[in-house]
Amino acid sequence: MKKKTRVMLLINHLSDGGAQRVVSLWAHFLRQKNYAVTVLTFYPREDEYDLDTHVTRANLYTSFNAYCQIPNQITTSTLLLDQYLTQHPQDIIIPFSYKPNIICAKSSKQKHTLITQTLRNSPWSIEPNFDRNLRDECIKKQGSVILQNTEQAKYFTTPEFAHVKKYIIHNPLNPAITKIKKKKYSTIKKIIAIGRLVPQKNQMMMIEAVQILRDQYNFKCQLDIYGVGPEQKKLQQAINQHKLQDQIFLRGRNNNIFQTAIKYDLFIMTSFHEGTPNALLESMGLGLPVISVNCQTGPKELVNNTINGYILDSYEPAALAKQIIQINHVDILKRIGRQARHDMKRYRQKTCTNELITCLNTLLKDYHPYD
User: Is the pLDDT of residue 370 over 60?
Assistant: First the structure.
């Protein structure tokens, strides 16, 4: 019997974010293709994404508190990773996010294990400094990087990255979405936003836009923001300050977000930067009309402006409010919503799995471990 290829997906934790969701989906896809899959996290958390029962699940630390108590997290985590790999060798490791990428680049086991770096956000999201330089050095050292879209690839066109192999694996549409879709369209009464409550997501712009809709256009709508994070208190204070408690609600986590989302009339995203925004991709896959700010990176690859959604080139709340008013017609919302669902078929499981398998096969074929 042919030995299964051993693939490890390494990430900080398995809860909340888009990268975590992709890890859970990739683990499932790879298991279906008969790979031996391990998901290794720094620490366990509550409300983790589900994993296939045949996927091996392990942690470097027993808890988040245990991780926080370590004085030198990078060095210690690298040693723990090396210990795990000594007992559980892997053929290829795919780290997700900054610290997993760093400890893989520092690991002594890379002599015997293929490691490819990943980029889960805009490469320009980190200002030119030590962290960005370290990330780039790790990518150059490893010699390959998995990207999410063609816009990210533009960062790696300079001569210093000429030897680095770039693989684009698009974020997969959650398979559950193929069975769920928005059927009824109406004028805009309820708007949904989905994302962690962090400065990157820029939910403050949404709040101010709703105020402008009320005060300047005499237009009242409900905005529900799903997600958790450190900005919750600040956002609630802004809602209270603008006296929008009867219009804007911080809904927290939702374990049935797809069935919930199709009840809304519009999805909006105002992020300062993204990798490929899963919430936008999934909302379009459900058939929701969408408005997104044209941030780096991802929205332009998903949204064909005026055809399957709307792209804003401004971070002014007034621009968002004006766009909402302009598209507040049933025919427009139905047209772009249905077109969005059709266009997102290219991100379904089969296509993205083929991209992933092709990448792994190419990497392993060209890999020559050294002593």
Answer: no
Q: Which run of H or E residues covers position 36?
A: strand 36-41
Which residues span the domain enclosing 30? 6-172+348-366
pLDDT reported for residue 280 = 97
Cα(124)–Cα(248) distance, integer angstroms: 32
Residues 6+ apart with CB under 8 A from 11: 19, 20, 23, 39, 40, 41, 42, 95, 96, 97, 100
What's CA 209's distance to the chain center, in Å? 25
Structure tokens at 308: 């399957």
Q: Say how many Å lie between the first and final Cα of the chain, rounded.
A: 28
Is 90 exceeded by the pLDDT of residue 277? yes
pLDDT reported for residue 1: 57
Hey, what are 228's tokens?
């958790």
If asked whether residues 360 and 240 sit together in one domain, one would say: no
For residues 343 and 354, membership in a common domain is answered with: no
22, part of any domain: yes
**Cβ atoms < 10 Å from Cβ of 227:** 23
Specify whether 85 is located in the same domain as 190.
Answer: no
In tens, the pLDDT along 23-47 reads 999 999 999 999 999 999 999 998 8
Calculate mean pLDDT across residues 233-248. Answer: 98
Residue with tokens 């986590």: 253
Has residue 87 got a pLDDT over 80?
yes
Residue 259 has pLDDT above 70, yes or no: yes
Question: What are 337's two structure tokens?
Answer: 């919503």
Confirm whether 72 is domain-assigned.
Answer: yes
The rounded distance, in Å, linking the Cα atoms of 154 and 131 is: 20
Q: Where are the beta strands (DSSP E) in 42-124?
A: 56-59, 92-95, 114-115, 117-118
pLDDT at 186: 97
Residue 284 backbone phi and psi in degrees, to 5? -65, -40
Nearest to 356 by CA among 153, 146, 102, 151: 146
Say if residue 197 is in the same domain as residue 341: yes
Q: CA 173, CA 350: separation in Å to the nearest integer?
A: 10
